[in-house]
Amino acid sequence: GAGVSQSPRYKVAKRGQDVALRCDPISGHVSLFWYQQALGQGPEFLTYFQNEAQLDKSGLPSDRFFAERPEGSVSTLKIQRTQQEDSAVYLCASSLLRTENTGELFFGEGSRLTVL
Amino acid sequence: GENVEQHPSTLSVQEGDSAVIKCTYSDSASNYFPWYKQELGKGPQLIIDIRSNVGEKKDQRIAVTLNKTAKHFSLHITETQPEDSAVYFCAASRTGTYKYIFGTGTRLKVLA
């Protein structure tokens, strides 16, 4: 596809379940970001990959959150033992350039996670 | 920590009028300021950006101004149209970090 693709679009999980959210960036994009967007708020940075290397994971809220991009393309954000406060839209973005803040971020439509 | 404040949270204007959204940032080292438009159920989309070496940038009906001394920047939309209705986010970033710090958003409604 032409844009960033995320799946699933919607996920309902019971508290304590593990979830995995997938991101297919634009082909050839070096940089990949994950953001968390709570209802009525702006996106908050979670983690950044340059190709397969995770260069910044300072935004991950706890060790229950884990992200990977093993082949430098598709990325997966995994949340273990989900809690209600994890309910949010998880946005993936990719960028063509490798240098910080010199390239437009292209966002996917997000994965909306609801934890009951 | 780094923070971006955005005002107003909601804004209603008549079609054809202008809309102004203001943001203030806390990190004086910030040097890149993008604006994103987010429509319902969609991801944010870049509409304009400005770097700290310029004070103003314009693209058709959209303009952004930057005041580095006061650490604030603004989005100006002229001749608003119903399709401009969306949530707008400002953001700030600086060289050496991959984080974009987003504001809390402004819901713009353009009334026909």
Question: What does it look like?
Answer:
The complex is a heterodimer of chains A (116) and B (112). Chain A is mainly beta. Chain A has no helices and 11 strands. The mean pLDDT of chain A is 93. By secondary structure, chain B is mostly beta strands. Helix content of chain B is 0%, strand content 54%. The model of chain B has no long low-confidence stretch (mean pLDDT 94). At the A-B interface, β5 of A face β4, β5 and β10 of B.
Please render the helix and strand layout as text:
The complex is a heterodimer of chains A (116) and B (112).
Chain A: E1 5-7, E2 10-13, E3 19-24, E4 31-37, E5 44-50, E6 53-56, E7 65-68, E8 75-79, E9 88-95, E10 106-107, E11 111-115
Parallel strand pairs in A: 2-11
Antiparallel strand pairs in A: 1-3, 3-8, 4-5, 4-9, 5-6, 7-8, 9-10, 9-11
Chain B: E1 4-7, E2 10-14, E3 19-25, E4 32-38, E5 45-51, E6 56-59, E7 62-67, E8 72-77, E9 86-92, E10 101-102, E11 106-111
Parallel strand pairs in B: 2-11
Antiparallel strand pairs in B: 1-3, 3-8, 4-5, 4-9, 6-7, 7-8, 9-10, 9-11
What is the structure about, briefly put?
Chain A contains no helices and 11 strands.
Instruction: List low-confidence stretches of chain B.
Output: none
Strand content of chain B: over 45%
Shape of chain B: globular
Number of strands of chain B: 11
What is the N-to-C order of secondary-structure elements of chain B (H for helix, E for strand)? EEEEEEEEEEE
